User: What shape does this take?
Amino acid sequence: EAQDTGVIVKYPTKDTTVTAKDEDGKDIPVEIDDKGHIIVTPGKDVDGPITVTVDDPSMDTPQTVEVEVNGHTKGNDDNGSDKNPTDKPAETPATSVDESGKTPVDPTDDAQDTGVIVKYPTKDTTVTATDEDGKDIPVEIDDKGHIIVTPGKDVDGPIKVTVDDPSMDAPQTVEVEVNGHTKGNDDNGSDKNPTDKPAETPATSVDESGKTPVDPTDEAQDTGVIVKYPTKDTTVTATDEDGKDIPVEIDDKGHIIVTPGKDVDGPITVTVDDPSMDAPQTVEVEVNGHTKGNDDNGSDKPANNGENKPNTDKPAETPATSVDESGKTPVDPTDDAQDTGVVVVNPTKDTTVTAKDEDGKDIPVEIDDKGHIIVTPGKDVDGPITVTVDDPSMDAPQTVEVEVNGHTKGNDDNGSDKPANNGENKPNTDKPAETPVTSVDESGKTPVDPTDDAQDTGVVVVNPTKDTTVTAKDEDGKDIPVEIDDKGHIIVTPGKDVDGPITVTVDDPSMDTPQTVGVEVNGHTKGNDDNNKATADKGAENNTPSIADQITPNIPAKTPVKDTNHLTDAEKEAVKNAIEKVNNFPAGTVITIADNGTATITYPDGSQDTIAGSDLVVAIIDGNDVKLATAATATKANAKNANGQKADANTNVLPQTGAKSGNATLLGAIALAAGTMFGLGFSKKKED
Assistant: This one.
């Protein structure tokens, strides 16, 4: 079978070549698909790994990539091709240990993957493990080479894992951390408990830092809330805003799974209890499209069978206000308002928040509209900052200590405790604390679409000031609207006539030099005339009609999809096939489908037609209840030509010439356009 290697060729051209060979030197069928992915067909008699070679005139040298074949080992005769006695047996690579994916384990009796992998293990490979008390820990290497340990509840972490094999120069040891344990600490009480009482199991707790909203459907969904150290006595319940019980369970990884139902009234209140907890813990899970306090499912309206009786339904109780500090983050000693990462859950109009630094000085503080606690430390702050939250629904005010970068608790970090100038009456020459230098973080950079919508580039300006400037230009040198939002994100509005990529330049007096970032535009290639600007001007001068001026695409029946805003590759292919089926486009026409179903049809002369996704796709309702638009009602009704004109659905008359536009009669127009293409280049792109 043809299979995607996951290797992508960026900016391939018509001169790009790709070849592939297996370990026997046998040619392997290989191609680059329309998204740049390298696709191979290994064959059952392949001897992996496969070496893929990509070359292009723009590359300094050909680039090779080694693609592993499942179940095959480099150097091994995996397909038996070396059975010829004249062949020398290939050497087996030495056994080694890869700890790049190492992950901590929990102090439980469950077998757990350490993330450490033994590469090329043999029948002689051994693995042992001991904890900090020297106690043997059960350990094994699974069939994929992963090291699996069973720590036990009485483990004293960390765990030392040792791997040995005759091919290794020396045994290799890896230290695996245990959650909640500190190296050198007596975490299981083995050093102080002379009666050998078993170590206590950690108390059950609830981590809602990864909490995520759920949809009002009949499907089981992960809330992102995790129960840590659940026991057989742990219970979980859930009710919606109407007080209706919602099916809920804790899966084998501790995740809380709910099945909201289509008639849910969000949000959902989940309650977890366990004998080891001081009190049950509640978490409020939002439901997409629902607002707290609203009758989102209509349960409050036609009550009492339409009779004018008082509604005796008791309103659902509001969950108590609480404070989630799981995402707490340090702040800088500046005059800027900063998010502490601490979140007030279910704040009310009576919720209060105050903050003081180590000198007892009041620090400006507020709760934003998402519940986040925002402080403005000031340059003269003495960290840490103590934040106090109170609400009538809370048993007692809750305090959170927020660290200040560069400050240590108990230290006089702002010099407030020392007499200024040693008690002498001299002017204070202390320099104010420097503001951090403005910088640009492009680690989250993401491509943008060639549209008139404002879009986040994923590039973030760190510590921008009032003097920070940002500009942007496309490949034609055209100015692109750009701004820095209140979170430092760079937002651009590319425009439909953009020629990507876009070059963004950020400057600030605190920077040594301006910093530039190249932002890709989807569907555009650097160095290409993607908006056909160069040749469109020539076509306009010669008044030559483009192919798009002469064709109004037929619109097929709508294709059913799961999500009209996020089509899968298979769904995009189905939409493309449906368009091709009801049209007879000139050879060389390329159809691309966007995530929202919008089709861009690019003709051989570079001109384009666009069909909106709303005319091509329809959401699947209840799995199979889909009302499809018919070709008879949809065909031509909404397709537009370059000037926004619509073709006559009955006469099929071309919008400019008055001639019939049956595709069979287009050969003359195509020939004319082809002549234009070779003589003048591509004409200007036409947008819908």
